[in-house]
Design brief:
Strand content: 25-35%
CATH topology: Aspartate Aminotransferase, domain 1
Number of domains: 1
Number of helices: 4
Order of helices and strands: HEEEEHEEHH
Largest sheet: 6 strands, antiparallel
Distance between the termini: 31 Å
CATH architecture: Alpha-Beta Complex
Helix content: 25-40%
Shape: globular
Radius of gyration: 14 Å
Structural class: alpha+beta
Length: 115
Amino acid sequence: MDIEALRSICLSFPAVTEDVKWENNLCFCVCGKIFCIANFEPPHTFSFKVKDEEFTELTVMEGFEPAPYLARAKWVLVTDSLKLSKKDLKKYLQQSYEMIKAKIPKKQRRDLGLD
């Protein structure tokens, strides 16, 4: 999976913005809250939030590991994107987006047309 394919999926969700943080990380956000982080440097790893019950299941699989600094919040780091089909990647990114979006105050979500 290249960075452009990841961008295409993330930017297809409503009200998503992208920003470069920490010099070499492309962050995808909804209302300023990050739901996916991609590293510009090869091999282009990326991280996203998963459900509690999926965290252990994914992090023991080859190509995945707990995301540095964010594992306690149930974020996984994808070290080998070939381990995910495009369909599964879109599912996990959509799920991460929805979990982060749910934390945004209701009025703000309504103002952005997210509800």
